[in-house]
Amino acid sequence: MATVQDLKRRIRSIRNTRKITKAMELVASARLRRAQARIEAMRPYADRMTELMMGTAKASTSLQGLALLQRREVKKVAIIPLTGDRGLAGAFNAQVLRHAFALERELRGDGVEVHWLVAGKKGRSTLGFRRYEIDQSWIGFSDRPSYHDAQAIANKAAELYASGEVDRVVIVYNQFVSALVQRVVERDLLPIPEEALARDDEAEHEQALLGDFIYEPEPEEILQRLLPVYVETELYRALLESAASEQGARMTAMRNASGNAADLISSLTLDMNRARQAEITQEILEVVAGADALTG
């Protein structure tokens, strides 16, 4: 049985740990609010980009010459898991990588060659540990991604696709639903989905499509410039969703850790009180036994 001093040391250690987890929970909560604000600020820009692409695509006579729209037989696929640079975020990293590995097994079962591009230290270290060959990795921005970071990933993905080194690019990331819920999403990045250029819901986007416009230069040339920006925007949106999901997962994990520490402290305090009571009882018995010996 542990002594009172041992139990005191354990309680002191757990209290210090709880202070750390509580501080991390507060930091994650503040960062989550900022991440949510960035997502809300980015949505109008992304929606306007989609409207511009739809209007330009409608005015174009042909989309055949646009490399990022060309569809071909899928023989090589690039998978881009978006992970974090740090742990202590529950299942945030594990569920993305688990989904990415399941997708890889499915593709290899169909005879498709898989290439890996990865964002985040956790994804890079896991793939390296499993001895996967990584075409390129990006680290250092999972907490606060910038548009420049999205551009770097998008440029590499577009380069691989346009050169024919891959026939499809898929991103896997955590979509932010709430601080308690992060849903893994698998989305085709390239070729650009057809629904990004034309939707059935004309009423929703009629303001973007109505009216006569004179395009200078030609719509096809404008679209040639818009498509890479669209890919960058989609990646930036995914990075922001992933960043918010990471902070939400970390906040929840640290809150649970603090609660578990409090429960453990209560249990150890009860054990310490019992041990102290046993020591006091033992001392009383020894005093009584000594007194009986003297009077006897």
Task: Give the topology, please.
Elements lengths: L3 H56 L16 E6 L10 H18 L3 E7 L1 H9 L4 E5 L8 H16 L5 E9 L5 E9 L15 H4 L9 H77 L1
Parallel strand pairs: 1-2, 1-4, 2-3
Antiparallel strand pairs: 4-5
Helix pairs in contact: 1-6, 4-6
Rounded to an integer in angstroms, the radius of gyration calculated over CA atoms is: 29 Å
Identify low-pLDDT runs: 199-211
Strand content: 5-15%
The CA-CA distance between the termini, in Å, is: 34 Å
Q: What's the count of strands?
A: 5
Biggest β-sheet strands, sense, barrel? 5 strands, mixed
Widest β-sheet, arrangement of strands: 3-2-1-4-5
Q: Provide the structure class.
A: alpha/beta
Morphology call: elongated
Order of helices and strands: HEHEHEHEEHH
The pLDDT mean sits at 84
Helix share of residues?
Answer: 55-70%
Number of alpha- plus pi-helical segments: 6
